Amino acid sequence: MFNQLKSKVKQQLRGLLLSLADKLDSDRPTTSAVKAEKPRRSRRRRRRRQNKEQNQNIFTQTLVTPLQKIAAVRHGRRFWLFLGMGVGVSSGAITLGYGVYQIETSITESVEDILVYARPETLTIEAADGEILQQIGPVTHEKLKIWQIPDTVQQAFIASEDSRFKNHRGVDIQGIIRAAFSNVQAGEVVEGGSTITQQLARIVFLNQERSFTRKFKEMRLAQKIENNFSKQQILERYLNLVYLGSGAYGVADAAWVYFSKPIEDLTISEAAMLAGIVPAPSVYSPLENKEAAEKQRDLVLKRMAEEELISQTQLDNALASPLTLNPSQPKRFARKAPYFTDYIQQELPKYLSDEIIKAGGITVETTLNSLWQVAAEDAIDNAIRYGRWQGYKQASLTAVDPRNGQIKVMVGGNDYENHQYNRVTQAKRQPGSTFKAFVYTTAIAAGFSPYRTFTDAPYIVDGYRPENYGDKYSGGQVSLRQALASSLNVVAVQTLVKVGWNPIINIAQRMGIQSELKPTYSLALGAWEVTLLELTNAYATLANEGVYQEAHGISRILDRHGNVLYQAKPDTLQAIDANTTNIMTWMLRGVVTSGTGTPARLGRRPVAGKTGTSDKARDLWFVGYIPQLTAGVWLGNDNNKPTWGASTTAARVWGEFMKEATEDMDIEAFPELPRLDGRKGSIKAEPLKPKKAYYQRVAPPETETPPQARRTTGRRYSRRSSRTAQRSTPSRQRTASRSPSPSRTTTAAPKPNPTPVEPAAPSPAPEVANVAPPAPPAARKTE
C-alpha cells in the first residue's frame, strides 16, 4: 500500500510543480522580442540537453526540471505566493506519507490471533475430563458459538454499536460522519464512530489510548480482519470478548452476572440493556448505576426499532417493562477442588517461566478425577462429623493412580475459606505404624520369610523401650505377617535391629518418601514426619509391583494457540523387586481382612493397607490400595493436640471414599503370592549391634489374687537378669520416664544373628554407624 501511495504523491507533486511553472511562465509579461527570444532559445537548448540525459538521472526528470523551470521565472509576486503554497503542500504530503509509512510498518500483529486471543495473566485449570476447576484473571468463562447466541442479542449489539456492520469492510465512513453529527447536535459524545470490527481490533491488539496513531492502527487492523474472516466469525469473537462491567467478559457471562440466567432466556429488554453497557461499562453497569443503565437500554431499544429489528409493539412493551436484576457472582470466580488448584499453581513455575505465565492464555490440564473428588470431599465431611466425638477437627485425603503417578483426588481440609493450609502436601506428621510397611518391606527384600518369628514381649534396646498398643503382649512367638496385621510395635523394632536402619531408610526413599529420615530405633514406629502425599505415593509403589512413579497433578500445559508447553513424562524407578512387593501386598491384605484395618473392606474386592496412630493418638492414619488406586487418609488437629480417636476411623473414611470411587471399576486381583521356600533376598541386611538388648518376660496372672490386689492391666511381669538367675526389680528404660514394675523379670535378648541371605550389592544409603544414637521422642503407644 505504501509503495502505491508514494508513487501517487510523487506524480502529483511533479504535476503540481510543472503546472505551477507553466502558469507563472504564461503570466509573466514580455518586455521585448529580443529579450524573449533568448530565454526561448535557452529553454530549447536546455530541453535538448535534458532529453539526452533522460535515461541517466531519474531524479533530474522528476524533480529538478520543474524546479529549474520555476527558477527561470525570477520576477513577480505570484511566483513567490505559488512557490510557498507548493512547498507547503508538498511538505505536508511528504510528512503525511512518512507518518502513514511509519504506522503501517509498526503493525506487526497477526490478525489470526483474534481466534485464540486471551487477556494477559489469564490461567485456566481443568480436570482430567475437561471440567473447569479454576479460572484466574479477566477470562471469558463461557464461550459460545454464533449459533448459540440468540438473534435478539446479536441485533441489539449491532443496532447499538454498528448498524452498518454487514455493509462495510471494517471502517464505516458514513458511520463516522453520522456519529460526529449526532455528537455535535447533542453537545456531548452520544455515539461512537468505531465499528464492531474496530472494537474487536482494539480489544485484541491495542489499548484505550486516545491518539491518531492508535486510531489509524485500529482502522488498518479492522480492514485486515475483514479481509481474513467472515462477518459471523467477527461477531462471534466480539460478543465473547467484549467487557460488560461488573467482572463480566462476554455476553454469556453478563447474562449470568446480571440476571442469573442462560443467554437463551434473555428478553428483548435484557438484551438491549447488555448492549447499552458497552460504551462505558463502569458507568452503565446496572449494579453501579441502575438509572443510567435503564436510560441506555431505552436508547438501544429505539435504535432497534429504527432499524426495523423489532416491531412497535415490542418496543412499547420493552420500554414499559421494569429493569429487574438478579445478580450472581461471575462464574469464573467459582472454584472446585481449591486445595488441588493451589497445589497446581505452586507447581506451575517448575515448568513455565514468569514471562510466559504473565503473558496469559495458559491452560493447565490436570490429572484430577472430578467425580472422585466430590466423593472424597463428602468422605472428609463425614470424617469431621466423626471427629466431634473423637477429639479431632481436621482431616485430609488423597488418591494416586499407582500405574502412572497421577493424583486423582486431593482434599487438604474441610474449610478452605478459613484454612488454606493443605494437609496433603504441607503438613508433616508422624506416620505411626503406617511406616512399618517400609520396615517389613526391607526385611522381606533382605530374604526374611513372612513366617519368621519374633518374641512379643516388652523389649528394651540401648535404653529405648517401645510399647505395643495398650501395653499388651502375648509373651509368645509371632510371625512377621501376624505382627504386621496386629501392629505389634516390639516386633517392628526387633525387625529393624535385625535388618538395620540404613537399608530401611534407603528403601523408603526409593519408594517415594522425600522427607528426612534419621537412623534411630524409633524409626520403626514412624517417629520422623512425612506428608500424606509422599506416604500415599510410597504405598503406590507397592501397588505397582515395586515400580515408583512420582506423584504429579499436571498432565499438559497449553498456550493460547494450543501448543504444548509441557507434557508430563515422569521417570520410573524399580525401587524394589516385584516378588518382595507381592509378598508385602499379601501381608497387608491380612491387615484389612483380620487386623486393624477391617473397616476398609470393600466386599469381594481385594484391599491391602495399614493403619497408624502416633503418640497419644495425635495422628490417625490409614493408607491402602487396590491394583488400580492408592489412597491415604489422615485425621488429627493442626495444633498437634491429642485425640481420643482410633485409626480404625481413618480406615472407615477410606472405605467410604473407595466405595464411591470403585462403583464402576472392574474388580482386579493382586498378583499371586510367589514361592517362599528357598527364596533369596534382593538386598543385603545390615544388622545393628546394640550395646544392650533384653526382653521382659511375661508371666501368667495369678489366679488366686484377691480382687483388691489385682493389677488393672491383668498381667504380671517378672524381671530376670541375663547373667544370673537371681530376681531383681530395676526400673524399666524407656523413651519417656515410667514408674518401675516390680513384678516383671527380664532376660537378655539374643544377639542379632540374621538368617544368611544371598549377598547382593546394597542400594546407596546414608553412611550411618550401626551403634544406636540417643533415641528421639517416639510414638510409643502406637498401633
Poorly predicted runs are: 27-38, 703-782
Quaternary structure type = single chain
Largest sheet: 5 strands, mixed
Distance between the termini: 83 Å
Task: Explain what this protein looks like in three dimensions.
The chain is an alpha+beta fold and 783 residues long. The strands form five sheets. The protein has a five-stranded mixed sheet with strand order 2-1-3-10-11. It has a five-stranded antiparallel sheet with strand order 5-4-15-14-13, sandwiched between helices. Mean pLDDT is 82; it is low at 27-38 and 703-782.
Question: Which SSEs are present, and which pair or pack?
Answer:
Layout (H helix, E strand, L loop, with lengths): L1 H26 L5 H20 L5 H15 L4 H30 L16 E4 L5 E5 L14 H11 L11 H14 L9 H10 L6 H17 L2 H11 L9 H9 L8 H10 L3 H4 L5 H17 L5 H9 L17 H10 L6 H6 L2 E5 L3 H18 L6 E7 L6 E5 L24 H10 L7 E3 L3 E3 L15 E3 H7 L2 H11 L1 H11 L20 H12 L3 E3 L4 E5 L5 E4 L4 E3 L3 H17 L13 E6 L5 E8 L2 E8 L10 H15 L31 E7 L16 E2 L27 E4 L35
Parallel strand pairs: 1-3
Antiparallel strand pairs: 1-2, 3-10, 4-5, 4-15, 6-8, 7-16, 9-12, 10-11, 13-14, 14-15, 16-17, 16-18
Helix pairs in contact: 1-3, 1-4, 5-11, 5-13, 7-8, 7-9, 11-13, 13-14, 17-24, 18-20, 18-21, 18-23, 19-23, 21-22
